[in-house]
Write a structure and sequence with these properties.
The complex is a heterodimer of chains A (234) and B (248). By secondary structure, chain A is mainly α. Chain A has 9 helices and 1 strand; from the N terminus they run αβαααααααα. Chain A is extended and about 90 Å long. Classes of the chains: A mainly alpha (234), B mainly alpha (248).
Amino acid sequence: MSEPKKFEAVLDSDSRKAPVRVAFVTRRTSPHVKAKDDALVMTWPETLFRVAVAIEVLAIALVLLALFWDAPLEGLADPMQTPNPAKAPWYFLGLQELLHYFPPVIAGVLIPTMVIVALIVIPYFNINVEAQGIWLRDKQRRMRIVGVVVGVLVALFLAMRVWVILIPTVIVAAFLFLAAASLPDSPGRFRRWLVSKPLSFWIMTWFLIQASVLTVVGTFFRGPGWAWVWPWRA
Amino acid sequence: MPSAIEAYINDLRETRVWRSVFRSGTGATNLRRALAVQQNIFLHLFSVKMRRAALNFSMTWYLGTLSLATFLILVGTGIPLMLYYHPSVPQAYADMKDLQFVVSAGVFLRNLHRWSAHAMVLLVFAHMFKVFYRGAYRKPREFNWVIGVVLLIVTLFLSYTGYLLPWDQLAYWAITVGSNIMSAVPVLGQKMRFLMLGGNSVNANALLRFYVLHCVILPLAAILFIGIHFWRIRKDGGLYTGEGKPHE
């Protein structure tokens, strides 16, 4: 294998004096090459027309909203006069509701950081990429682990009397165990759908429902002193 | 005479000046349609053809497109609003009153900006959940998902910094509550809060910082990451149509 080299590398960046042809033949192909021969349409006009319509519909909806519903404006900012309750923007009210139950380091720092880190790492775990129904393999062991985790969470929230977290957790857990009691060939379509759902689905759905409930409670159900109020009685 | 108008427009599009601007030329051939996309700086991130399946409404609900739409509306309304706004205390609040009672269509401008901002936060969240439930974060789109998380955070900060600018009671106390959360960070909390507010409480310095963040730094960050996000869609093989799903 020690034949003399038949070529020489030329270190010259003037491409007219030292013309170079490099052909890379790699084993990995780009995603585009791998694509199947799906039905294709021309981006112009098919895609761009649809995009334009979508943007126009949204713009019209927002213009109508802006014409008939005024943005709030209260009195001049006064550091001496704290409103009761003082509320953050709506998308942080879930966090503010958490602060009502947990110390600031947990509710204000640890939980948001964990949520962001969890979101970032989703695509890098094979369990999320394969996305196999959680109960389809290794059911007994998974049952024990999930049972312990759900049990600990429910006991914790029950001990702290955090109903707005406890109730959604119990509901999601109920569906999770209904999925465990279902089979891929169950007669009901809904149960077949449940059983096909992977772990990531259950965690994300729990997070989505939990975040929505906390945000709605923080926005509409909290009055002076962060006490519970019924919005229709206020 | 629609045919005469059509002929006139076609003649116009064949003139030397027009062709110097739009090189793709006229005619309804697929070559021209491809060139119309490929030769246009604003469209060139699109591939000239797309999978038909990617256009189905159920695939995306157009949530990414609509998130971009709200961003464009926010830039379009935000720049005129800047013409009527001074980031100083208490002039900022007086400017709100001027928008309400003096500036033509000032109320409409502010309403549209505010509702679009709320819509953008909602749509970006919805876009994220839709992408997740479809499993579109799979290889080779992993990193574009991460860029998306960055854009979510940028969106939240854009909305949060804008929230202070009217300098009314609602704005002042919402930012006070929000910035108090930050001071709970161990060790660095107080310093981070001081850096963000330019002081130990929400004051005129905080207003100026939020204004610069809201009107310069965060929009530039958003444009940069939106650019990367769109470029990656193209480089990762176009919109996700369900490939690489082993169990469905």
